[in-house]
Specification:
Order of helices and strands of chain B: HHHHHHEEHHHHHHHH
Distance between the termini of chain A: 69 Å
Structural class of chain A: mainly alpha
CATH superfamily of the largest domain in chain A: MetI-like
Number of domains of chain A: 2
Strand content of chain A: under 5%
Helix content of chain A: over 70%
Shape of chain B: flat
Number of domains of chain B: 2
Radius of gyration of chain A: 29 Å
Shape of chain A: extended
CATH topology of the largest domain in chain B: MetI-like fold
Distance between the termini of chain B: 38 Å
Largest sheet of chain A: none
CATH architecture of the largest domain in chain A: Orthogonal Bundle
CATH superfamily of the largest domain in chain B: MetI-like
CATH architecture of the largest domain in chain B: Orthogonal Bundle
CATH class of the largest domain in chain A: Mainly Alpha
Number of strands of chain B: 2
Strand order of the largest sheet of chain B: 1-2
Largest interface: A-B, 123 and 123 residues
Largest sheet of chain B: 2 strands, antiparallel
Number of helices of chain A: 13
Number of strands of chain A: 0
Oligomer: heterodimer
Strand content of chain B: under 5%
Structural class of chain B: mainly alpha
CATH class of the largest domain in chain B: Mainly Alpha
Chain lengths: 349, 320
């Protein structure tokens, strides 16, 4: 049986329902907001006319109801945020204090499990390695490349190539790199680039992704490969925003490129640098797709987000899964506080 | 640098030699920089390129020789794409079906948050009401809540509804097959809103206030101002967020895995590919072609609209 297009029709129908709902909700809201005030305005006009003809005192102008407008503008957003984010987050916090079926309160037992179970401690260590390495290496690479490309020709092309992995899904990127890490038995011709390089240098081919702790680092390479482009683009824009007269003045003073980098470039792009590191750190903490696609969290590569998925949705351990989610949230908070403090300093200074 | 006009003869000579030296150095510098940056950029592309080449090679070739042998022994076929897209056996991938799912998930998941966030951002920027700043800060702060915090209860909300003290307040959604798209739209909309409001607020708040006041004096109401003045002006921002959200939803695995299920009625490409990479990790003829089927749409969107995307990225991250 070949691919049957007719079987796909219900999906398009559903998509159409979605689009109709969109038009109805957004269009309806705008129409409502347009028609109702217009109606009030007309009524008021009629009142004024009536008052003027009968010689009665003019009705006082009421204050325009700004708040009501705001409510309607904000209604969909607030509704979705409360139902989809605020209430669930509170419930997850409560669930983390309950057992796997969410029936009995167990206090902090799930959090105790987090730090006592060997396999979970391994998960926490892996996450730590990820969060230390990815922002550091990706930002360093992005910075060096941004400085380099600033003086190069074909700048747009080079930047596009580095930036391209940003468009590729983590799943796609994982498959791309799994192919690089592919293994064929000793004696066979290798099909993976990495093993081919190793073999041609006289080494033994390896099953890279089975080899802990090396495999975690190989997965980290995938993340760096994707995120370096983001760091590069933001930092490159920051470098270009440095006022030309400062650079020119330094150059006239005979500053060496090295001094130029540390004394002019670095201080000028510090805010952008912090933003990049913070964004990458938060993104890395939540990394899930790469681990799930490349190893499914096996061979000691699991991280918090993938373990959370496994606990809550594969093993039915809602309590432990929720505890992992809350722990993830707790890890994000200090990073954000650091960024807010930096922003405040920047505004004051 | 050549504007200096020294009066002493020796001075003239000195400056001209230094400028010549520095000009040569500069040119050399730019040449090495160009070379190094292009080489790195090409190296960066090698893994993708290898997969791309492989997807056009016959199965037995992919499995026995490296993709670099393609250049000495080129063999070209479209069979992999034919199999992975339209093949009927369950092992083939049937990606055409999942491709449609990806589309059906992505389009509404982009439209809803964009529209809602634009409305909310306008209210937060230009309508005066009590507690406006606090509300904005609250929405802003929601950005840091990892979506993992919402997954378990939200899934429960869809599957069992809401009961308060034993009383069923909202029924379960009870969705089957392709109706589950609605769950995914809902989840993506919720998770996207904090960032969307923040990004669009950045743009809308910067519109000139004279413009707004003039419109108000002319008797325009808020909905009218929003429709006729604000919307046309923030189209670039809407595009920036739209692309951002498009790439995010199309490439997402976690939300789809939980809310769409795994069947070919609703699961998007990413879910199917992740599953194939797990269970058929050695079927490279399918994985390579499959990966490219999933990459091609975001790549086109990205390359054609890169300008907007970068602008959104910079506005979202640097202004923070």
């Amino acid at each position: 049986m070949e691919f049957d297009f007719a079987e796909e029709q219900p999906k398009f129908l559903m998509l159409m329902y979605g689009l109709i709902a969109f038009v109805a909700v957004v269009g309806g809201l705008l129409l409502l907001l347009d028609v109702v005030p217009a109606w009030f305005a007309r009524r008021r006009e009629a009142q004024l006319v009536a008052a003027a003809t009968s010689g009665a005192p003019l009705p006082r102008r009421r204050k325009p109801r700004e708040g009501l407008f705001a409510l309607f503008f904000l209604l969909p957003t607030l509704l979705f945020l409360v139902v989809g984010l605020v209430v669930p987050a509170i419930r997850t916090t409560l669930l983390s204090l309950m057992d796997s079926g969410s029936t009995n309160w167990v206090g902090l037992r799930n959090y105790g499990w987090l730090f006592s179970e060997d396999s979970i401690v391994r998960v926490l260590i892996n996450t730590l390695i990820w969060v230390l390495l990815v922002p550091l290496v990706a930002t360093a690479f992005g910075l060096i490349y941004a400085v380099l490309v600033d003086r190069a020709r074909l700048e747009a092309l080079a930047k596009s190539l580095i930036f391209l992995p940003m468009a590729i899904s983590f799943v796609g990127a994982s498959i791309i790199w799994k192919f690089v890490y592919a293994y064929r038995g000793d004696g066979q011709e290798q099909i993976g680039l990495l093993n081919q390089i190793v073999v041609s240098l006289g080494g033994e081919p390896k099953q890279w992704l089975l080899d802990s702790p090396l495999n975690t680092f190989l997965l980290i390479v995938i993340m760096i490969w994707i995120q370096a482009g983001f760091a590069m683009v933001v930092l490159s824009a920051a470098i270009k925003a440095i006022p030309a007269d400062i650079v020119e003045a330094a150059r006239l003073d005979g500053v060496s490129p090295w001094q130029m980098f540390w004394q002019i470039t670095m201080p000028s792009i510090r805010p952008a640098l912090i933003v990049v590191v913070v964004t990458l750190s938060i993104g890395t903490l939540k990394v899930f797709d790469i681990v799930r696609t490349a190893t499914n969290g096996n061979y000691d590569t699991s991280v918090i987000a993938s373990e959370m998925y496994n606990q809550a949705f594969r093993y039915g351990e809602n309590g432990q899964g929720s505890a992992l989610a809350v722990f993830l949230f707790v890890l994000v908070i200090p990073i954000v506080i650091y960024q807010i403090r930096n922003l405040r300093q920047q505004r004051e200074g | 640098m050549t504007t200096a006009t020294p009066t002493v003869g020796t001075g003239v000579q000195a400056t001209t030699t230094t400028t010549r030296v520095s000009r040569v150095r500069k040119r050399l510098n730019s040449r090495t920089a160009t070379l190094v940056s292009i080489v790195i950029a090409l190296l960066w592309t090698v893994p993708t390129f290898g997969l791309f080449i492989s997807s056009f090679r016959p199965e037995d070739q992919i499995k026995t020789t490296g993709w670099w042998t393609f250049f000495s022994d080129p063999q070209f076929t479209l069979q992999n794409y034919q199999d992975v897209l339209f093949g009927s056996s369950s092992s083939s991938g049937q990606l055409a079906s999942y491709f449609i799912n990806s589309l059906a998930i992505t389009i509404p998941s982009v439209l809803f948050p964009t529209a809602f966030a634009a409305l909310a951002a306008y209210a937060l920027a230009w309508i005066n009401f009590k507690g406006r700043d606090w509300l904005y800060i609250a929405i802003f702060a929601l950005q840091i809540v990892p979506l993992q915090m919402a997954l378990v209860p939200l899934l429960k909300f869809f599957s069992t509804g809401v009961t308060v003290a034993g009383v069923q307040v909202l029924p379960a959604w009870d969705l089957v097959d392709e109706q589950k798209f609605a769950q995914v739209w809902f989840a993506h909309t919720c998770f996207a809103l904090p960032f969307a409001v923040f990004l669009l607020h950045n743009f809308i708040a910067q519109l000139p206030s004279d413009l707004m006041e003039a419109a108000r004096v002319d008797g325009a109401t808020h909905p009218k101002i929003f429709r006729t003045i604000v919307l046309p002006l923030i189209t670039p921002a809407l595009a920036a967020f739209g692309i951002f959200q498009f790439l995010w939803v199309w490439n997402d695995l976690l939300v789809a895995l939980i809310f769409a299920g795994g069947g070919n009625e609703t699961a998007p490409l990413t879910v199917r590919l992740a599953e194939m990479a797990g269970t058929r990790g050695n079927e490279w003829q399918r994985l390579t072609a499959g990966a490219f089927v999933s990459i091609v749409v975001p790549l086109i969107v990205f390359l054609s609209l890169q300008r907007y995307f970068v602008r959104g990225l910079l506005a979202g991250s640097v202004k923070g």
